[in-house]
Amino acid sequence: MPIPTLTDLGVTDKWQQKLAKLHIHNAWDAILHLPLRYEDETKITAIAHAKIGESVQVEGIVLQQEVQFRPRKQLLVHIQDGMGATLFLRFLNFYPSQQQQMAKGQRIRALGEIKHGFYGDEMIHPKIRAAEGAVLSDTLTPVYPTVSGLTQPTLRRFIQTALEKVDLSDTLPKALLHRLNLPDVAASLRLLHQPPSSMNSAQLHNGHLPAWQRLKFDELLAQQLSMKLAYQQRCQGSATPLIGNGRYAPILLEALPFALTAAQQRVVQEIGQDLQQTYPMHRLLQGDVGSGKTVVAALAALHALEAGAQVAIMAPTEILAEQHFQKFKQWLEPMGIEVGWLAGSTRKKAKDQIKTSLVDGCLRVVVGTHALFQDDVVFAQLGLVIVDEQHRFGVGQRLALKSKGQDVHQLMMSATPIPRTLAMSFFADLDVSIIDELPPNRTPIKTKLINSGRRAEIEAFVRHTIKQGHQVYWVCPLIEESETLQLQTAVDTHVQLQAAFSEYAVGLLHGRMKAADKAAQMEVFKANEMQILVATTVIEVGVDVPNASLMVIEHAERMGLAQLHQLRGRVGRGQAASVCVLMFTEPLSDLAKARLKVMYEYTDGFEIARQDLAIRGPGEFLGAKQSGVPLLRFTNLEDDLELLEQARDVAQYLIMHDQKVVETHLNRWLASREAFLGV
Ligand code: ADP
Ligand code: MG
User: Fold this and answer.
1) Predicted confidence band at 679 (pLDDT cuts at 50, 70, 90)?
2) Comparison of pLDDT for 611 and 66, the residue scoring more
3) How far apart are CA 359 and CA 352, in angstroms?
4) Strand 55-68 with 74-80, pairing
5) Does the Cβ of 439 fall within 6 Å of ligand 1?
């Protein structure tokens, strides 16, 4: 049975717009809109027996009603219950209709929390109803998350109707549920929407409640099924197999001043295998900052070029894309392969030229930002897309890329390792290669946490570092509230450091600079004609200057773990012992303390990502924050690992043995979310 639309439920357009704000687009969405908390209208409590701080329903006759004007305008209603106890009800906002409802002599019910007030025990802004004709509810009353203009009774009515109209028969076989020890889905949903009065809040909000376990399991199962199907679909798809002929790759290997690490060799092999398949590669190349992913990307590109395909390399920022452009030019041009450049800031004329040569196929390699995947960029023979720092692209951009080249081989690279839980869930349709070894002769980075009050010591250390012939990054604080303020801070810091280090060249790099100016600054820094580079967090991603061995980060307490790890990875790329100074300003929040501690204790990106996931949850990691749609609503991957493992195994089994169940389950759970789950 198809899922009823909101119109089927009799919800008018006006209300549908309100519901859309709650991400409720059909009857099933309404059913999954679960209560924030519950009110108990199943009984009436004697005023004398009500505990302070507890939410209760009382009933009484209004003894007196009065509007007071001091200390501010308020309505004060005094009631007395059948046992003679009295209570004040206080309203700071009220309507004439409420005054009427609570006129002297009326019998009313009030639901709220009892507090000690100035005049005696009182309820502030209780929920009021006339006692006349009111019946006691036999279930707890759900209170749902809502938006302005949509009252609880209205929303409750919609959800109630949805619960009645949707076919809630179980999608999963009884035997399976029995084996997993999970309850029936209809019973689980009804319990959470209309719990019996015997249950309390703590029980209802405990994630281990069987009803919750069932919803989480269903959600995870839907996700696992869709991931596995996506994987299967891809493996049945068609792509041009790219068979290398060894014309280019050996030349690059010969020219490199280093030998590949064993890990690099292994992943180059894995990618090479994939490229020769008749279905598109979707491989994620994971390797900590500095593990040498770029050269692996270049070798993959050469493989594709040997097979006659075009290659596009995309990076999330112009600075990083520009660096790749330089590297690729340096590596490929000696072999007579031209490398093109396309970014948002590229002039129209140059852009048009690049586009023409991509569509007629003269240009075989292009490096750039997401400008590469605008609709009007057409490739004659795109065979391989390489996406660097993949996690920096939002869900939307990844979808755009997907639509561009369904049949194109894709290599995604990320320095932010994907924790196991995420690898098993959102990234389950990707193949993963891991570079688990850093190039030799790197010295580990030492991290120091220093209070910003000790700036003079830090400056002395900067001077010491420069005297040793090394260079320094000085990262200005992130100011989330205002980009202008952030820019100002960077400019001020630059002036201040120029004065303090007048004998050295001090440069500045920030997000508002023209791409060409940024590139020029980077060039000067790279050539060691500049000793200190003051930068905003634009250098977070992928910048590579091996001679820089000190990084100072101001207000490190404001930054996230992934960001700090990326920043820190800018040093420790050469052979000199490197240091990262995290400057912080007190007082520190608990979150900031936890993050700085992690940075101090760990250098391994995998461990940091794991800690990060525990602190922040997966949504942000996936770049889905901006989409506003929670990817998993009920499940917390860290807590529900066991359920995730079960869902994975059950999904595998169902796909092999019970196509019908797969279909009904997906149909119910993915009605409006398919696009996101499939990313
Ligand atoms: P990331 O994985 O962070 O993108 P890069 O590709 O930028 O790392 O490489 C970091 C640095 O290590 C670069 O200067 C690169 O030339 C160097 N490098 C890469 N592979 C090796 C290797 N096998 N031996 C020595 N240096 C290497
Ligand atoms: Mg990189």
Assistant:
1) very low
2) 66
3) 11
4) antiparallel
5) yes
For ligand 1, whether the C-beta of 295 sits within 6 Å is: yes
Minimum-distance ligand 1 atom for the alpha carbon of 259: 23
Residue 155 and residue 132 share a domain: no
CA of 562 from ligand 1 middle (Å) equals 20
Query: Is 537 in a helix, a strand, or coil?
Result: helix
Q: Does 516 reside within a domain?
A: yes
Task: State whether the beta carbon of 397 lies less than 6 angstroms from ligand 1.
Answer: no
Query: Bridge partners of 583?
Result: 450
Say which range, 310-324, 329-343, 347-361, has the weakest mean pLDDT. Answer: 310-324
Q: Where are the beta strands (DSSP E) in 81-150?
A: 86-91, 107-116, 121-124, 127-130, 141-143
Is the pLDDT confidence value at 406 over 70? no
The one-letter code for the residue type at 70 is: R
Phi and psi (nearest 5°) for 382? -65, 125
Is the CB of residue 264 below 6 angstroms from any atom belonging to ligand 1?
A: yes
In the predicted structure, residue 609 carries a pLDDT above the cut 60: yes
Q: Whose CA is nearest to atom 24 of ligand 1?
A: 439
Burial of 672 (0-12, 13-18, 19+ CB in 10 A): middle
Residue 268 CA: which ligand is closest?
A: 1
- Running DSSP on this structure, what letter comes out for residue 26? B
493 Cβ closer than 6 Å to some ligand 1 atom: no
For the ranges 186-190, 579-583, 606-610, 660-664, the lowest mean pLDDT is seen at: 606-610
Boundary (domain end) residue, out of 181, 203, 225: 203
Q: How far apart are the CA of 454 and the centre of ligand 2, in A? A: 33
| Cα 544 to averaged position of ligand 2 atoms, centre (Å) | 8
- The residue segments making up the domain with residue 26 are 13-38+143-203
pLDDT tens digits along 129-140: 999 888 888 899
- Closest ligand to Cα 260: 1
Q: Which residue has the CA at smallest separation from atom 16 of ligand 1?
A: 292
Percent of the chain predicted with pLDDT > 90:
59
Ligand nearest to the CA of 294: 1
Query: How confident is the model over 265-301, as pLDDT tens digits?
Result: 999 999 999 999 999 998 989 988 888 999 999 999 9
Report the separation in Å between the CA atom of 416 and the middle of ligand 1, taken as the mean of its atom positions. 16
Assess if residue 405 is contained within a domain: no
Across the chain, mean pLDDT equals 88
Whether residue 193 sits in one domain with residue 85: no
Boundary of a domain, candidates 92, 109, 136 = 136
| The pLDDT of residue 541 | 54
80 lines ligand 1 (CB under 6 A): no
Q: Which one-letter amino acid corresponds to residue 361? A: G
Q: Name the DSSP letter for residue 259.
A: P
Going 324 to 330 to 335 to 338, the CA torsion angle's sign is positive
Distance CA 645, CA 218 (A): 13
pLDDT, tens digit, 9 for 90 and up, residues 76-88: 999 999 999 999 9
Q: Which residue has the higher pLDDT, 509 or 679?
A: 509
Task: Establish if 46 belongs to a structural domain.
Answer: no
Q: For residue 317, give the ligand nearest its CA.
A: 2
Ligand 2 center from residue 449 Cα (angstroms): 26
Residue 322 alpha carbon to ligand 2 centre in Å = 12
